[in-house]
Write a structure and sequence with these properties.
The protein is built from 4 helices and no strands. It has 119 residues and is mainly α. It is elongated, with a radius of gyration of 35 Å. It starts with 10 loop residues before the first helix and ends in a 6-residue tail after the last helix.
């Protein structure tokens, strides 16, 4: 959240601020913000552009590390997920009301073994 502060200053102080802001290429408000943050010794909030730039820099560092690993020739141990059990319903053509293309089809046995191991 942003709050607005206002204060009254003499013409002399205003002219000093105006000249300094002009020399720095800043508005008087921006110059005052810089002065306040410096005086209070706190970090000014980051702009969205600065936050994006930091994230891009972090991603570039990660990509560089991955490229180093990839091109170094070292093997990386990748986790292999454990096989999961799947429920397979046994399809038989005895006593079932199956379509004609399934009755006596030799591929049913082959397909029924999938998920249980290698065919």
């Amino acid at each position: 959240m942003v709050k607005v502060l206002s204060t009254k200053v003499s013409d002399e102080v205003y002219e000093v601020f105006r000249k300094k802001a002009e020399e720095s290429g800043l508005s008087i408000a921006s110059l005052l913000r810089h002065i306040v943050y410096k005086y209070l010794d706190i970090e000014p909030p980051k702009t969205p552009e600065q936050e994006l730039e930091e994230k891009v820099q972090l991603l570039m560092e990660r990509v560089s590390r991955l490229e180093e690993i990839l091109y170094s020739g070292h093997r990386i141990a990748m986790p292999v997920p454990a096989p999961t059990a799947t429920a397979v319903q046994d399809i038989s053509d005895e006593g079932e009301d199956l379509p004609s293309y399934l009755k006596g089809n030799p591929w049913l046995e082959v397909l029924s073994k999938r998920g249980r191991g290698r065919v």
